[in-house]
Amino acid sequence: MSRIDIRDIPIIHEEDDYLNIEKYADALTRFIVTSDTPITISLQGEWGSGKSSLMNIIKKKLCDHDSDEKFEAIWINTWELYLQGEEKDIIEHLSYLILKEINRIAKSKNIILEKEFDDIFSSFKRYFFKTSDILMSMTGADEEARKLALGMFNQGEHTYVSQIRNKIAKVIDILVHSENGISKKGFVFFIDDLDRIQPSFAIKVLEVLKNLFVIENCVFVLAVDYEVILKGLKSKYGEDYDENDKTYRSYFDKLIQLPFVMPISKYNINKYVMQVLYDIGYFEENHAPNNRYQAYVIKTINLTVGKNPRVIKRLMNAVKLSKIFDDSNEGLLCNDGMKLANLIFVCMQMAYPKMYDVFEQNIHYKTWTKEQQEMAYDETFNKFRLTQQKQFLDLIFEVFEYDENINKETLEKIIALSVLTNMSYNVDDDPLMYNGQEYNLSSETQSQQGSTLIDMIELNKGIRVLDVGCGNGKTTLELYSKNPSINIDAFDLSLSQIKVAKNNQEALGVPESQVNFYQKNAITIDYENKYDLIFSNATLHWVTEAKEMYGKLYKALKPEGKLAVHQGGFRSYYGLHKVVLQAIQNLDLEPYFENWEYPIYYPTSDEMEHMLLEIGYENVRVISHVTDGKEHANLIDNFKNASLLPYLNKLPDVVSRENLTTEYYDLCTSQEIDTYTHRLYIFAKKGA
Asked: Model pTM greater than 0.90?
């Protein structure tokens, strides 16, 4: 048996198909061979689900043999195409690339169609010149003139595109009816990596295929994530186009005759996972773990990273690294129990980072407080994922009780080993998590802004206050000092921030009965008629579901309760964000940020006021405070410890994160930086 390749590359040969996707390739191959053309098939699935591997196997079955059922293969990697030019050039580049590939195959069979191809290329040149010429001529024209010109252009465009398509069809027909070894079946175009490029770019690719290449004797197999197409359609037609997804689905269905969803849930990962663990030397195949340990391994992976092949490969590389490091140092992974415990913690890092944080703070799970038990669960998960999370925790307790070699001392060493891989840093959908110690040392900007907010509010005696996103607690404690008769519940998403807040509280001697710090995700609150004042400083711009969030705050207020919030406003810190983007470009890190939007809600004052009134707030007042940022002496450092984190969370390892941070600082110190700052101070009231 060959070793399993855990590099992040698709399967090329059937013998490497440990997930048994060949049976799906067989069915799709027979479907293509027995279907009339033209036809377009989509292989739909999330990134890393095996679409490219499935296409490779289909290509081999359809094209890499000599028979009457053979097709000619043309492989187009849209990611490479995307990197070659601007989005506006996609139609031209893709069209030329497909035609050049067809011509290359023809020449390889000694079929000379120079006249026909020259005619098509000339038509393309006229078409693209006409497109750019009309668009250029409209520069500076008023809106009505632009609409008229585009209308005139579009009327003739359909006819012109049809003419080009007919010329391409003629060439294809000549080739399939030649006697020079070209397939009689035609051409299969494999379009890969549509889910790696910008959604608007993916839509243009689909439209090129629809308008120019839906031709007899042509088959298209597309690797695509429907969610990417949906984003592209929403960008093109608007979020509320037809008020639901029916129109988007209809658009997609017109392009695709056979949608095939990657059967991730059907993948049998048992054999695959164990074989990889043997191949990398984590377990010894000659002394394989007993059936119970193997069952624990499989259940651990199923309940954490799941069955996505790419994610499993990332996991296995992390496990391999931990084993190599351990072999050269303490030799902790000396039996199956220790190896299983290490695997559990690495999986936990990837899937449930909050749970991992709790174990890291208190490995002796039997002594967890009620608060720590609650912290171990991530309330942002959907119901199914939350159930898996609880099952995983039950599994952990079972494993740790089952193996007599696992105790508090060994677990402390194992979790220290798992820190080496730091997999939790790159979970794409993780909420923003601050480092409490670093933030505590560099949060002057946020503290200044919080003090400004405090100065703008009155605190009646004995009121109950909720502080949303309390951070290191300094602003919360300043709020309390203004009127020590009040009671404050203060929470933050980051457990390390809460620990720092409690330390700051203890240093000032503020009783817990007056100020209660606890860990919670803001979007999960479900309080009702509970607080006289809801206070929040430099937090709520991180909640992109803004209307839902402010609606929950409205619900949590008592009748006539008040809202006092400071958050970022439109384009705040845009100059510093430009520096980060320049740093990303300088370090060639752009691929990690494809199809990603910075998770922020920076509204204008009018947008904020309108939203609050829609929710039901009264006496809404939004103060827009714009400065050059010079009043904040440590703004560049403060930005690094807060606003830079979402960028760092997208990077795969410690080295790339440190490089980005260093490049950010280098750029900030080597040039004049625009530190434009726009803050909103928001005040409102709930009706009686």
From this structure: no
